[in-house]
Amino acid sequence: MLKIVVLLKQTFDTEEKIIVTPEGVDDRDAKFVINPYDEYALEEAIRQRELLGGQVIVVTCGPERSQEALRTALAIGADEAIRLDGSSLPDDSYSIASALAAVIEPLKPDLVLAGLFAVDSGSGSAALQVAERLGLPHASAVVKAAILSAAELDALPAAGTPLQAAGQRAERYALVERDVEGDTETVSIPLPALITAQQGLNEPRYPSLPGIMKAKRKPFRTVKASELFGGAGSAPLDSAAPRTVRTQLLPPPPRAAGKRIAGGPAEQAAALVELLRTEAKLL
Amino acid sequence: MSKTILVFAESRDGVLRRVALEALGAARRLAGKDGAVHAVLACSGGAAEEAAALLARGADVVHIADDPSLRAFAPEAYIAALGAAMAAVRPDALLLGHTSMGRELAPRVAAAFRAGHIADVTAIEASDDGGDVGFIRPLYAGKAFERRSFLPGHPWVITVRPNNLPAAEPEDAAERTGTVTALPFTVPPLYTAVRSLVRRTGGQLDLAEADVVVSGGRGVRSAAGFEPLQALASALGGAVGASRGACDAGYCDYALQIGQTGKVVTPQLYIACGISGAIQHLAGMSQSRVIVAINKDADAPIFGVADYGIVGDLFEVVPLLTSELQRVRS
Questions:
Q1: Whole-prediction pTM value?
Q2: Which of A25, A76, A125, A231 makes the best surface tag, with the fewest CB within 10 Å?
Q3: Which CATH superfamily is domain B4-182 in?
Q4: Which residues of chain B have pLDDT under 50?
Q5: Which member of B150, B236, B254 has the closest CB to residue A243?
């Protein structure tokens, strides 16, 4: 039995054009999806539950519209959903991670899964900050994962001398392959632990019709940030105070119109090399 | 206002990564004339050459964490070393590369030291009086940018995107004084057992750090179709990348994927071969300095962002480009 928490974020569909206005990014007609990396995390959580039994709880920090992403996750196969109301939280990974950690800690998960980063803000910071706050070891950018008992891990044939032996023992381990800038590293870490999902981890499934029907009856709750930090005996507010602030939103710098190079292949190749040397001052 | 800045000088296989020197350059600028720049090197079995290189390029103090636990990458060992440096130096800011390693260490160190983290920084706006410092970083994989600043009262943790900030250059040796010191730190009981590391990139240049990227899409038609692209990349001293289409079709490994999912690259020269230019792919490369597109389809959206466009067959044009380059060079 495994209790798995999946951190997910609702993001713009990657097909969307991003329109920068003085008030922020225009999201009036935008289509929203589950962050693609979080879909891998969710799929992996469901697969591990199917193998080992247990429970999958999806947690998001976001505005009201992000409920839709949680409903989708329930329809795909998660058992329970928690929305941390992001409207009262500053837009800063430190604040968000402190609130998420406060939501997750009482759940006492065996495994926390998250996407490598969200395709909107792109920092890849909050999940690992959560790991630090909860004192969990982590494995990042995972492309293959298995949960093993201590005996199963010990029974694995050793691939030569381990590069780094671990001192910490546990009942269960995650044995994972990580993408390290194109290279593949195999590591094991004891549970409880946090894992971030890289593309290639699995092929995420779609919600099924029965799944969508069932999702309506699954537990779903909303937590306000004030409930986490407001009451007596709770964490001091400073632990969630923002550390950074956005001071400006900018469109990407415009690119000058390009040149088409005419002629046959040989002429095109020669002309391009010449332009790269003389005009672009490269090579 | 002068500051004390700590740089995590990442090395790979015992060689300083260029992004470490880029972070060092940024640190020198943030520190101000009278500030101090410290660098920390993590190694197993000495790093005298790297330390000398850092001193020559603007570090005032180099702290060497030397321990067998730093041979392979167990994050908690590196975090312990970095934490010891943070405690010893008490810097205003810690800078790391936004690399595989930096992306893992920065959030954990930030959380442990109650610090803010600004990630994937592509430019730094600092006034000479040391007032407000703005960090520019991409959103939506480069479809927008934000300027972000730290609020007062806590240390800063910053990861800088490779290939975007100027690297620290060697300074006049006569004017440089600095010290190298051993960094004592306690290795915690390790969680992470590193069982193996397979070099699938064959020690090749990392895509994110490459000056030149030659990239292939569905138009390369097969795994073998990448061979002329590899030859061109080799001639240019660059790396090979791919669009999602090429990865999905099984022509190459997902490790090569450039785009909104996958890697974001900003090389000096990006050559897109047989890539139509879906918006997700453009998000991963449109900030490259010079973009060349080679495609049969004259209406392909990739031409919209290209500085130089060639409408033609990549299997004809690419080999000719390679030989033309070799001819010009010789």
A1: 0.91
A2: A231
A3: HUPs (3.40.50.620)
A4: none
A5: B150
